[in-house]
Design brief:
Blueprint lengths: L1 H4 L25 E6 L2 E9 L2 H15 L8 H14 L4 H8 L4 H7 L9 H5 L6 H8 L15 H7 L3 H19 L5 H47 L6 H15 L5 H10 L8 H19 L46 H15 L7 H4 L6 H4 L6 H11 L5 E2 L4 E2 L3 H12 L13
Antiparallel strand pairs: 1-2, 3-4
Helix pairs in contact: 9-10, 12-13
GO molecular function, one term: DNA binding
Pfam family, one: DUF3435
Organism: Aspergillus pseudonomiae
């Protein structure tokens, strides 16, 4: 880029072409990306599929906080509206840009049905505030990054008690028991059982999707009430329920419970003004300062000047009834205080113990033995042994060097034998989950 900025159009010419390299001229900007055995593969000569792009745009829109779904055609809606309202483009040129045969296509399918005209200003003979009306009617008005994207475990559990899902589960279980008792299992019966299983999965997913949509729609009204009450109260932590929720969230994120003193400190520092008087602002400042003082429990001020005074060791008085010289017992020295192990050291010991002794380990020996890897990968213990098997088959099945034992193997068969004999890990068990 620095070399490109140093170029200029020479005299007597009006352009200077910057040709692309021939090996990169046919590369797509939005190219196809695949994940094979946990490794990302980029195919620059293949375009990204429409379904993948639409799914990613929808996810990006939810992350940004949009209330409505974001899809590719919204860019055409916005661009067509700007062209139509600019007054600088004729209908014929607009049809050419939008690739429409007639202007009625835009009027029927692209023209927004939400009127963004300042009717009050027009009726009163005033200049309309176009910027404000556009801000009120645009899609970005509903952006809120706090809008939930996923359901909680409690919300997901409520779906399991839905009558429609329970009916599908009972129908599947009844047919499964009937098929187990049957001596002749035809392909028709097996296909029907698979269809019932897919029906249960589809019903659960549909109910979860409907619940997620309902939670996202109800978020605006419920969160608006909480925001109004919090601002009127002048504090970020409104009630005891918010304090308990803050403790739970902090415990889930950093595995340490937030102390009540810390919650009180945050409640006094994160406040909003509730009055226009100067005295109220002074009172708010004094309360925050007092909260900081109570939490720190240290007087403000710099360090002392000069050297610190030495501590005087108290002199013990001699005992009246002392033991004979040969029976004097030497004072036992107290053992040195060893610092308590940190959470990182404890997790490292637990992962190493699991790899060495567990019959069905849950920690990956390859990730653990890689000193250059991040701590999250090295210390991770899966909830089940099958989770470790899936991780190993997706990421480490093609490896030929054991990071834990520092040994190398020649082929895939020797590598599988090494994992079974030394680390009790057999990826073939993934095909038979009932054995686990």
């Amino acid at each position: 880029m620095e070399d490109l900025r140093r170029l200029w159009v020479e005299d007597g010419r009006q352009q200077m072409e910057v040709p692309l390299k021939r090996d990169k001229a046919k590369h797509y900007v939005f190219c196809k990306v695949k994940s094979v055995r946990g490794k990302i593969q980029i195919h620059r000569d293949q375009p990204i599929s429409q379904s993948t792009l639409s799914r990613q745009l929808k996810t990006f829109g939810e992350i940004a906080g949009f209330k409505w779904s974001l899809f590719t055609h919204r860019f055409r809606y916005g661009g067509g509206t700007i062209l139509n309202e600019s007054g600088l483009v004729s209908d014929a040129k607009q049809n050419l840009i939008m690739k429409h045969a007639d202007i009625r296509t835009f009027l029927n399918h692209y023209l927004p049905r939400r009127i963004n005209t300042d009717m009050q200003a027009l009726m009163r003979g005033l200049k309309p505030d176009s910027a404000m009306m556009r801000a009120v009617t645009r899609m970005g008005r509903w952006i809120d990054p706090r809008r939930p994207r996923e359901l909680t475990d409690a919300q997901k559990a409520t779906v399991e008690h839905d009558p429609e899902l329970q009916k599908a589960i009972r129908k599947r279980d009844a047919f499964s028991k009937k098929l187990q008792r049957s001596q002749k299992k035809t392909s028709w019966k097996l296909d029907k059982l698979d269809k019932l299983k897919r029906g249960v999965t589809n019903t659960r997913n549909r109910l979860l999707y409907a619940l997620r949509q309902r939670v996202r729609e109800e978020f605006d009204e419920e969160q608006a009430v909480l925001d109004i009450e919090r601002q009127l109260a002048g504090t970020a932590i409104l009630d005891e329920e918010a304090k308990e929720q803050l403790q739970i969230e902090e415990q889930l994120q950093i595995e340490e419970q937030l102390l009540p003193q810390q919650i009180h400190l945050l409640g006094k520092l994160m406040t909003w003004p509730t009055s226009l008087s100067v005295e109220a602002e002074w009172q708010r400042r004094n309360e925050a300062t007092e909260a900081v003082r109570l939490y720190c429990d240290v007087l403000e001020g710099g360090p002392r000047r000069g050297r610190r005074p030495k501590r005087t060791v108290p002199v013990k008085e001699p005992q009246k009834h002392s033991l004979p010289r040969e029976e004097v017992i030497a004072p036992t020295e107290s053992p040195p205080l060893t610092p308590s192990p940190s959470r990182h050291e404890i997790a490292l010991q637990e992962a190493g113990e699991d790899i060495r002794t567990a019959a069905k380990p849950r920690a990956c020996f390859q990730c653990y033995g890689n000193p250059a890897g991040c701590d999250n990968r090295r210390l991770k213990q899966y909830s089940r042994h099958t989770g470790l098997l899936r991780h190993f088959r997706a990421v480490h099945l093609d490896d030929r060097h054991c990071n834990y034992c520092n040994e190398s193997v020649d082929n895939d068969m020797c590598w599988r034998r090494h994992t079974v004999d030394k680390h009790r890990l057999n990826v073939r068990y993934l095909d038979y989950p009932q054995d686990l």
